[in-house]
């Protein structure tokens, strides 16, 4: 099991909230610790949004709690009624992520009405908000997330695994059940990559030049993910139409294999180029081979369609599906190369990407 930065941040936020609550001699400092747990966020930007939303939601919970207790008392029925009203209002405001802590605030205030109830409610609300602000401070200062490093590492790892399966599939060397199982895992990993991309996108740059470079990097990473999905589409079609594809003539099979080998080599070299492991001005030999093989594959396809036989209808239909996926993958790779070349030409100082191992 790998302990991530968010786990450590949660622990530090709880300690900070409890420590400050004890220094201020606040009653029931445990509520500050509970609030800190709810308020920890993966990015600084989300933490900032969380502060605004938590203040709104906890004010709603506190005001409702005070109003219900003063008007009707704190019978369990009225506690439930207040909870329903609070949830309804919060959902209307579209800040549903704050429902949990808002209800904690409301119930903690309604639990013990007394002579100094208003003062008690203010202190309890302040205790909970102390936990929220403690989490924000921890997010701001401690262990800033390296989402770019994590994003590239995951893209690189998934690309490597996916291309291995495509190479095996074109050579009819895969175990069907193992490939199917791994494809499900790859689909889940692609979803995680999308989530990390969103976190990276939410990170704020504080200088204009850094902001421009960051935006261009976002475009590159978006294209990387899109290209990766095109490769996954090829893998799915190779798996789905495996029997029909391997009944194609040997000439076509060799062309498909050669075309995909060239594209996959091209893909790997582009990732290396992006992290500076390949010279920026180098021309890839695989590109010329890919273009030649693509033209040859198109000629064979056109020839095959002219000699179309109704008995081969399904086989030709599946071949057309695969061919369209290959051409689309090719176009995405060419666009990715243009983006990387442009970025490395205009942002020499900002084009360094730190690469480290990242467990999926």
Automatic annotation (TrEMBL):
Location in the cell: Cell membrane
Membrane topology: Multi-pass membrane protein
A Pfam family recorded for this sequence: ArAE_1
Keywords: Cell membrane, Membrane, Transmembrane, Transmembrane helix
Sequence intervals crossing the membrane: 63-91, 120-143
CC per GO annotation: plasma membrane
Domain of life of the native organism: Bacteria
InterPro entries: ArAE_1 (IPR010343)
Name of the featured protein: Aromatic acid exporter family protein
Organism: Falsibacillus albus
Classification lineage: Bacteria, Bacillati, Bacillota, Bacilli, Bacillales
């Amino acid at each position: 099991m790998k302990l991530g930065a968010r786990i450590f941040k949660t622990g530090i936020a709880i300690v900070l909230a409890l420590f400050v609550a004890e220094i201020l001699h606040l009653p029931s400092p445990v509520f500050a610790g509970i609030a800190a747990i709810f308020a920890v966020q993966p990015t600084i930007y989300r933490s900032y949004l969380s502060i605004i939303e938590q203040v709104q939601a906890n004010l709603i919970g506190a005001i409702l709690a005070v109003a219900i207790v003063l008007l009707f008392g704190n019978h369990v029925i009225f506690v439930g009624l207040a909870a329903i009203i609070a949830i309804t209002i919060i959902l209307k405001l579209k800040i549903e992520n704050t429902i949990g802590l808002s209800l904690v605030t409301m119930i903690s205030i309604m639990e013990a009405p007394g002579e100094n109830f208003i003062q008690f409610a203010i202190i309890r609300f302040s205790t909970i908000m102390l936990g929220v602000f403690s989490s924000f401070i921890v997010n701001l200062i401690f262990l800033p997330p390296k989402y770019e490093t994590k994003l590239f590492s995951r893209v690189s790892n998934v690309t490597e695994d996916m291309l291995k399966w495509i190479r095996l599939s074109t050579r009819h060397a895969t175990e069907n059940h193992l490939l199917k199982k791994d494809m499900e895992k790859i689909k889940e990993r692609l979803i995680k990559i999308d989530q990390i991309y969103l976190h990276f996108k939410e990170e704020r740059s504080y200088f204009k030049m850094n902001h421009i470079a960051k935006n261009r990097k976002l475009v590159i990473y978006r294209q990387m993910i899109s290209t990766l999905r095109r490769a996954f589409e090829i893998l799915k079609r190779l798996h789905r139409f495996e029997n029909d594809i391997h009944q194609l003539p040997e000439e076509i099979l060799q062309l498909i294999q050669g075309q995909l080998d060239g594209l996959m080599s091209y893909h790997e070299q582009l990732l290396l180029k992006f992290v500076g492991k390949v010279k920026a001005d180098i021309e890839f030999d695989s590109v010329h081979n890919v273009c030649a093989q693509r033209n040859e594959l198109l000629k064979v396809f056109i020839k095959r369609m002219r000699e179309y036989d109704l008995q081969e209808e399904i086989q030709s239909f599946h071949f057309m599906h695969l061919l369209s996926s290959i051409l689309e993958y090719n176009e995405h790779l060419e666009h990715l190369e243009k983006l990387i070349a442009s970025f490395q030409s205009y942002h020499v100082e900002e084009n360094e990407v730190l690469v480290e191992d990242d467990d999926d």
